[in-house]
Amino acid sequence: MSGAGVLLYRISENVPLARPPRENSRGAGDVILVARRFDACIKSGNLGRVPIDPAMIGAELREAENDLEVAGKSFKDGTDKWAVKQSHRALMHVFRALLGMKGYEAKGVDCLKYAMDELYVRERVFAYSILEGFEYGREIAKGNDCLCVYDRNDIEELLAVTRVLIESAREMAKKA
How many domains does the chain divide into? Predict the structure, then answer.
């Protein structure tokens, strides 16, 4: 994630919410692949339509906020690995809330990511970099952190992305 940058948009205003990314490495082929993966998740039953449930959306956002608060404390305490893992959990909760706002529910992390990409990134509500941050946290959460060396700037950026995404989701939930 180092140097990946983050750019989240409020579509109605087209105003950046955080610093701009360097380059968006996604090409047309990537967009087609994601659409196919999204469809595959639906066909496999790992992504499905559900009624929009404001109580569930609120609960997921509260969990995201709680996980982010704990992640911030871990970061301040110098327990970087836990800060990343907790921030990743917060992103999972906010992704679930955002999917719930569109009437979807995902089973599994991959379909959660593909749905976010299809429903929010491709629609330019959020930049691709939110998925990069999600993957960064996912790799550490999976244990692919054998060197136990973390870039504190990356962690700080991940916490900031998570915070902005939660705030954006809260605003979207109010309007829904």
Answer: 1
- What is d(CA 64, CA 58) in angstroms, rounded to the nearest whole number? 10
pLDDT one-digit tens code per residue, 143-167: 655 656 678 888 898 899 899 999 9
The domain spanning residue 110 has which CATH number?
A: 1.20.120.330
Quote the pTM value.
Answer: 0.78
What are the C-alpha distances in Å from 96 to residues 2, 20, 50, 111, 158?
A: 25, 25, 12, 11, 18
* Listed residue (11, 3, 18) closest to 132, CA to CA: 3
Element (H, E) at 48: strand 47-49
Asked if 7 contacts 16 with a C-beta cutoff of 8 angstroms, the reply is yes
Cα of first residue to Cα of last residue in the chain, in angstroms, is 32
| Among 8, 4, 6, 161, CA closest to 83 | 161
